[in-house]
Amino acid sequence: MRRCVVVIPTYDEVENLPELVPRVLGQNAGIEILIVDDASPDGTGELAEQLAQHEPRLHVLHRPRKEGLGPAYRAGLAEALRLGADLIVQMDADLSHPPETLPVMLREIEHCDVVLGSRYKTGITVVNWPIERILLSYFGNAYVRLVTRMPISDTTGGFRCIRRTMLERMDFERIRANGYAFQIEMNHRFVRHRARIEEIPFFFHDRTRGVSKLTKRIGLEALWVAWRLRIAHLLGRG
């Protein structure tokens, strides 16, 4: 059985962890979890350690301070490779990415390099977002596709399964983006490294507990990163 490690960055997610961990681990006996906690002041890291004492498939990586999504994922992906993962899943801690989609991802990864969970593959499959946020996300994705020319319906999504071999050859440690732009740059590298990509639709449910980490600065970074990637590609640097 291939080893699958689900990398989940956390910052103040103590309310979601007790539900998230058993739901993820319950999907497949070969699944493990790596919690990457950025010194959450609400005790998320401490709770993760307590849960790990009773669950050998749960690992915890503590980081000294909050630095953003990009640095947390870079550290988590590197640790997943060190743990010997054959497949690596990226997933949010707020339960917006349904663990019940994991078996579908693990089935689809058998014939491709990357499986992307998409909110826009078959229309708009987003639940409980206000209309203005849906429109911002939908047209923001259209903007990123237009600028970068990526043939991906959900360029900013962070729910994906990656083969180890793909992750090792795409040099993810050099990704510069920090916030949600990290997801754009990851997808851009998949395309540039000619990854076999499969997109699958899923229903994205807005968080019901905890606080969103999305800020205006993170959104502006995503707009700028799209042009940086396009220019780098035109110059033969990406």
Task: Describe, in plain words, how this protein is organized in 3D.
- With 238 residues, the chain is α/β, with parallel strands linked by helices.
- Helix content is 40%, strand content 17%.
- β1 (4-10), α1 and β2 (31-37) form a beta-alpha-beta unit.
- α5 (131-148) runs parallel beside α8 (216-234) and α7 (181-192) runs parallel beside α8.
- The chain has helices at residues 17-25, 44-54, 69-82, 102-108, 131-148, 164-169, 181-192, 216-234, and strands spanning 4-10, 31-37, 58-62, 87-90, 114-118, 126-127, 160-163, 197-201, 204-205.
- The chain has one domain: Alpha-Beta Complex (Spore Coat Polysaccharide Biosynthesis Protein SpsA, Chain A).
- A seven-stranded mixed beta sheet has the order 3-2-1-4-7-5-8, with helices on both faces. It has a two-stranded parallel ribbon with strand order 6-9.
- It is globular, with a radius of gyration of 17 Å.
- The protein has eight helices and nine strands.
